[in-house]
Structure formats: structure tokens, C-alpha cells
Specification:
2 strands; globular; about 90 residues; alpha+beta; about 10% strand; 2 helices; two-stranded antiparallel sheet
């Protein structure tokens, strides 16, 4: 069974939200456009956290970051989830 460390998860989410953060004095929000420095920083952060947790990571030719928890069971079925690290303006 996979157990989630809620405080660590929330801290990681807070750290991720710093990449591309717009200060409140400038209106707040996030600008993490695809292929921007902020999006690359977010990608490196997620890759590093995943690798530290023992997950396999790779980036394909279209710059999609994939993270996998390998199963110890040969031929096990997979569950695929997706998300974005880039954002729309603000």
C-alpha cells in the first residue's frame, strides 16, 4: 500500500507554486508558460522529488515528463495519470 505523507506533499506543492509566482503587489498568480525558465525549474523540481522517492523519470521527444512507480509484479497493469506543470497567465 502506498502511504501519502500529507505535510510533505503540501510542502512540495507549496514549493512548486513558487516557480513562476507573481507577487501579490503585481496582481498575484502564476506565469509558468511552456518551455519558460519557470516551467523548466518546475520540471527539474518534480523530476528531482520523484527520483528521490525512487521513481523512474524520463522526458520524451515532445518534452512530456513521465514518472513511473515500477511494479515488482512482472506484467502488472498500469494506471496512467496526467497533469501540466505549465500554466495559463495568472
Amino acid at each position: 500500500m502506498i502511504r501519502i505523507n500529507a505535510p510533505r506533499f503540501l510542502e512540495d506543492l507549496f514549493q512548486l507554486a513558487q516557480f513562476g509566482r507573481i507577487p501579490a503587489a503585481e496582481g498575484g498568480g502564476l506565469d509558468r508558460w511552456p518551455f519558460s525558465a519557470a516551467e523548466r525549474e518546475a520540471r527539474y523540481f518534480i523530476s528531482g522529488r520523484a527520483a528521490a522517492a525512487g521513481l523512474e523519470t524520463w522526458t520524451d521527444a515532445a518534452a512530456n515528463l513521465s514518472v513511473q512507480l515500477p511494479s515488482p509484479v512482472p506484467g502488472a497493469r498500469s494506471l496512467l495519470l496526467g497533469s501540466h506543470l505549465d500554466t495559463v497567465p495568472n
